[in-house]
Amino acid sequence: MIYVVLFFLIFSVLLYVLLAGADFGAGVLELFSSKENQAVTKKTLYRVMGPVWEANHIWIIITIVILWVAFPVFYNVLVVSLHIPITLMLLGITLRGVAFVFRHYDAFIDKSQIVYDWMFRVSSLVTPIFIGMVFGALLSSQIVTNQESHSFYELYIQGWFNIFSILIGCFFTALCTFLAAILLIGESEQEHRKVYVKKARIATIVVVILGFLCLLYGYLTKVEFVSVFLESKWTLAIVIISGILLFPLWQSIKKQRRIYSRLFAGLQVVCILSAAFIPVFPELIFTQTHTISLLENIAPESTISVLGTTLIIGGVVILPGLFHLLKSFKMIKILER
Amino acid sequence: MENLDAARLQMAFTLIFHIVFACVGMVMPFFMITSHYKWLKTRKKIYLTLTKSWQKGVAIFFVTGAVSGTALSFELGLLWPEFMKHAGPIIGMPFSLEGAAFFVEAIALGFYLYGWNKIPEKFHWITGVIVGISGVLSGILVVAANGWMNAPSGFDYVDGVFSNIDPVKAMLNKAWFTQALHMTLAAFASTGFAVAGIHAYQILRGRQMDVHQAAFKIAISFGAIAALLQPLSGDLSAKDIAERQPVKLAAMEAHYDTEKGAPLYIGGIVNNETQEVKYKVEIPKALSFLAFGDFDAEVKGLNDFPEDERPNVAIVHYAFQVMVSLGGIMAMASIVFFLAYFKKQSWWQKNWFWWGFTLLAPVGYMALEAGWIVTEVGRQPWIIHGIMRTKDAVTPVPGIVVSFYMYVALYVLLTVAVAWLMNRQIKALNQSQLMA
Description:
The complex is a heterodimer. By secondary structure, chain A is mostly helical.
């Protein structure tokens, strides 16, 4: 059953990154657009994301529930050491969610839209940075878990507020923007597609550069995770695959093939996450002194089996519904071709 | 401020807000689908207008409830990591089921909100029904998890170690049913009265009588039935608490000494030092009867429990009085409504009738919050009754007071914004009716 639970954990994280990531990224795109394009993006976003964004964001709740139920000790480190960035991330998620609804459901369209728009755009940028920083913090070997004889700064700040984590935060945000641009190519009207094609290309380049910078910085400052990463055969294989996959991605973007570009973009994200986590799994937290395994001190078997069963039942109920929702509102066109 | 106090305040504060958002998001869909059903049946335009107006309300509240709920799911761990470390594996089941129910709700809501003229009419309506049912299920499941904190079960606890964990037994703890029933009825009663009150006020101001009258009738029907059933469910809860958490019952009643044939105290001012309750109304033997169904039964007093295992008596007692008296007022108002509906049609024209319901708009939520204060403060000093103290569960991260103030600012802002938006929705509804 632990494998079922692990599967759903990985599945939820992946879907959160893909779906909510694209959702955050769309806000970032809107932020970095000309005035005219901002209005277009806003309209497209409402049409595309409106019916599904709420469902997209539930993946984080599923992730968190799985973590606390099945991996309580691991979760404990997360919520204590990373209390501050998680709180800031929540603040961002909250403001962003309400801004999205306010701007589309307000009964009158007037000046208050300006406030909602800026709230939406800025929180769309800030939230994924903090999510990325949380990922970065786990891998940065800066977290201190031993409460004694450490200052507030060492215990609760430096774990996530360090250059490596910040770089990962920026990398993650760029990745979200990249996903959003590719999603929007397929969803916008013909005359606006070029804009998103251009943005998708820029985002791809930014992702690659930031990814490289993360590794370079990690290598130069001897971040343990980066050395494991660079020495692993897995990583090498995955990086090569992902490099090769960049070409068809580039082609599909150029030819505005929406299904293929989404597919290849999704694969890039899968590659990035696997390259980062497969070499180190299950040691997912690198602290200053040691690593913490996800599989250490897991919940007792009875809990795991009940959780696994619940997840399977939930999956059977939810996934077809979700798929139907995405399909009904034309998020997925695969079936129609 | 101590870290523990700040953490408790933050938790209380976020819950106080979340409960309102969640209840509206849970109950409003039922009003919405009732109106939608009437539209499909009668094809009267006002029901369509009303449905569409309410669905915007549902969307706004659902999202505010969902994001504040997301924040809460993290806060449990952020503020009470020791609690979650041990309790997580035990009460994970209702939470994971709740996640599933909530997911279903979000999917159905996606269909409902964006499905007008796109999906078949009946299926569209059914998605609305699913929104309502899965919302109520989510609520029940979360309350079941809270029930476990009051009536921990499904594990052995020896020398500080939890073993033999049975998540199903933990979910079906002794408190889950009475608490879930009481909370669900409370959600319907308070939202029913709140929504009815808002429309009553519009009627008072002579605006678009038809649509507001239709709205009022739907909302108050749900609210009134729930408010009339609530005393029965309250009685079940009282009997349950008397058996399971006698110290909480004693605090609710500010009852210090164990006695047979215990009187019921109504109101009064509690002095914890002298253990006196001044200016109270005393009904002989009533507490024994209400708690055990026997006028001479023994009711345990606070002095039977060690001092460090008692909750803050004054808060629990006052909150309980507020809850019961407001609940009583609502039950009476419900009777007035049914009288007006079936017998005294002339009341519909009377201003006092509409003023009455306008003033009652916030009362349900006040009662509901008071009720949660009773159950949460009444459980203190425990986070898991009899097993783990709240002070042992709190996070080691210092300076929680900062995050407390941040949340206060955030939620006050959200509340103001949502109230303002709702006001604009009503204005728009009135304008659209004028145009028509």
